[in-house]
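> forwarded from #structure-qc
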């Protein structure tokens, strides 16, 4: 398993996360289901939130539902257009969040879920000699012959 990138300069540019504030649970469910069924997103999560915001010169408070959608860079534009058209708000809160790290098996699943024909080849690792310094890296100091023997 490959580890995540060490810093955000190595951000995973294949994965996109979109945050949306929906009026209620049914709208969040409708938007999320439409995005997933339309293969614009691989996954949608929602939960209740309390929002405070400026609207028409006044501070408003509302009980809303947050919606988090996971998609690919290729589908991002279509997803944002769908959300803007299907949302009940005049000015919907649709925000793309940068993904600096992601678990590689999850990214592969996400990409295959949205576009099954876009299967990326799994990167192959080069074989290393068992005793090479790089093969031993992360396993502690080399063992002596006596320590290597198995005890039954």
């Amino acid at each position: 398993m490959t580890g995540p990138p060490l810093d955000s300069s190595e951000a995973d540019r294949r994965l996109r996360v979109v945050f949306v504030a929906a009026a209620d649970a049914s709208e969040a469910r409708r938007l999320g289901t439409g995005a997933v069924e339309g293969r614009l997103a691989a996954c949608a999560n929602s939960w209740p939130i309390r929002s405070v915001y400026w609207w028409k010169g006044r501070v408003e408070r509302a009980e809303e539902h947050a919606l988090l959608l996971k998609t690919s860079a290729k589908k991002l534009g279509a997803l944002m257009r769908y959300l803007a058209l299907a949302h009940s708000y005049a000015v919907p809160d649709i925000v793309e969040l940068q993904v600096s790290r992601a678990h590689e098996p999850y990214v592969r699943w996400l990409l295959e879920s949205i576009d099954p024909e876009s299967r990326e080849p799994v990167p192959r690792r080069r074989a290393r000699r068992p005793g090479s310094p790089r093969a031993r890296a992360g396993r502690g100091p080399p063992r002596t012959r006596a320590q290597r023997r198995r005890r039954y």
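QC bot note: The radius of gyration is 23 Å. The domain at 11-118 is CATH 3.30.70.120 (Alpha-Beta Plaits).
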